[in-house]
Amino acid sequence: MPFNSTNKFSLCVVRYETDDSHFCVFIKGAPEKLWSFSQYLLVEGRTVEIDDHIQKEFIDVNLTFGKNGERVLGFAKLHLPKNDYPLNTLFNVNSVEKMNFKLDRLTFVGLLSLMDPPKESVPYAIKKC
């Protein structure tokens, strides 16, 4: 599913074998959007449940990046249970409403912050103002 401004994320489902899963959903997009779907956080290779302390840390870090004018992307994943999604499963990711899996209980993997260079039109726009 490509990124769009309504969903504020993009995702793909890939074959990713684990003991409990044949498929994994990888998702990137607006951190606050992905965070709202997340129940877990990946910390040094371990999955931990999000608690109030982690919630506060996320809000603080995300605000810090945003205040510095940085573009911030969040990343999360969701392993789909083998019992519910066997190898022959076909996934519909054309729209959120048609997806045959729920975007909940995600594992939030991390944030990426980057600085976009100003567009060429910025100096002219500032001068005009």
Q: What is the residue-averaged pLDDT? A: 90
Q: What is the CATH fold-level name?
A: Calcium-transporting ATPase, cytoplasmic domain N
Element order, helices and strands? EEHEEHEEH
Q: Span from first to last CA?
A: 39 Å
Name the CATH superfamily classification: Calcium-transporting ATPase, cytoplasmic domain N
As residue ranges, the low-confidence spans are none
Tally of separate helices: 3
Rg on CA atoms, Å = 18 Å
Number of E-state strands: 6
Helical content band: 10-25%
State which percent range the strand residues make up.
Answer: 35-45%
Please, what is the oligomeric state? single chain
Order of strands in the sheet with most strands: 1-2-5-6-3-4
Q: What CATH architecture do you see? A: 3-Layer(aba) Sandwich
Largest sheet: 6 strands, mixed
The computed structural class is alpha+beta
CATH class: Alpha Beta
What is the count of distinct domains? 1
Shape: globular
Characterise this structure:
There is one protein chain. The protein has about 130 residues and is of the alpha+beta class. The chain has a single domain (about 10-129), classed as 3-Layer(aba) Sandwich (Calcium-transporting ATPase, cytoplasmic domain N), CATH 3.40.1110. It contains 3 helices and 6 strands, in the order E-E-H-E-E-H-E-E-H. A 6-stranded mixed β-sheet has the order 1-2-5-6-3-4. A hairpin with a 2-residue loop joins strand 3 (about 40-45) and strand 4. The model has no long low-confidence stretch (mean pLDDT about 90).
